[in-house]
Design a protein that fits this description.
Largest sheet: 6 strands, mixed
CATH superfamily of the largest domain: Glutaredoxin
Shape: globular
Number of domains: 2
Strand content: 5-15%
Distance between the termini: 79 Å
């Protein structure tokens, strides 16, 4: 039996420096021949271990940065400057004079944003036309289709179909590396699909999304959905039973 530490430490030192560990020394008893084949076999085995380790680490990081934000509790809503201007923004579903107004900062690839839409729909069944929802776009960097999806929603708005496209985008569970513009246009019943497609490619449309992103950074949005009620702001898909009294208190 031979103590295998120097061989393992040498191989790990060359391969793990930028992996899961800075440096590893393993000490265990193993019968090993000194031939080249065994050393290469060991190196290949460790490469496999490190690849698996890298995949695991990547999975953890992806989970960490794409996990839906936890819902804000009523007591955790923070004061917000410039809130009156946000409430008058014209990208809305509902009447401008509705007594209950909610501003939502959304990302069309955000699972929590999709969940929050169901909470908003439940609130609408209770409040009816008394509720107006103002939408701002806040596509996160980790969601590759979110910015272009926001552009699609904005272009649909120019043809009076914002709400239809908004719902269509969430229902599509967007994935991959391209936006299915024709399918989305058909589903949302866009009156002029050619104009819609040209609009999605227009830099002016992109500028309107960046305007929302700038405002979002000003109020230090930490995740989506961002939820603004009166002069208070928080993050997360607030359940309907908590959202309704928050809206009533802000009236």
């Amino acid at each position: 039996m031979a103590l295998l530490s120097s061989e393992v430490e040498r191989v790990f030192a060359g391969r793990v420096r930028y992996g899961c560990f800075v440096r590893i020394s393993l000490h265990f008893d193993l019968a090993i021949s000194e031939n080249t084949e065994m050393r290469f076999s060991l190196a290949r085995t460790l490469d496999v271990v490190l690849v698996l380790c890298a995949v695991t680490t990547t999975g953890v990081l992806i989970t960490r940065f794409t996990r839906p934000a936890a819902a804000t509790s009523p007591g955790a809503m923070a004061p917000l400057n410039g809130w009156k201007n946000d409430l008058t923004f014209d990208r809305r579903v509902g009447g401008a004079q509705a007594p209950y107004r909610l501003v939502v900062w959304t990302d069309y690839q955000c699972p929590a944003c999709r969940q929050f839409e169901s909470e908003i729909d439940s609130a609408k069944t209770k409040l009816g036309d008394s509720l107006s929802v103002i939408y701002r776009y806040y596509p996160l960097p980790g969601h590759p289709l979110a910015f272009r999806a926001a552009m699609a929603a904005e272009c649909a708005r120019t043809q009076g179909r914002f709400e239809a496209m908004h719902k269509t985008l969430f229902a599509a569970f967007l994935s991959g590396d391209s936006l299915p513009l024709k399918a989305l246009s058909d589903k949302a019943e866009i009156p002029d699909p050619v104009k819609f497609t040209a609009c999605v490619r227009d830099s002016t449309t992109a500028a309107s999304i960046r305007t929302d992103l700038k405002r979002g950074r000003e109020i230090k949005i930490a995740g989506t959905p961002g939820v603004q009620i009166g002069n208070k702001f928080g993050v997360g898909a607030i359940p309907t039973e908590e959202l309704l009294p928050m809206l009533r208190r802000a009236q």
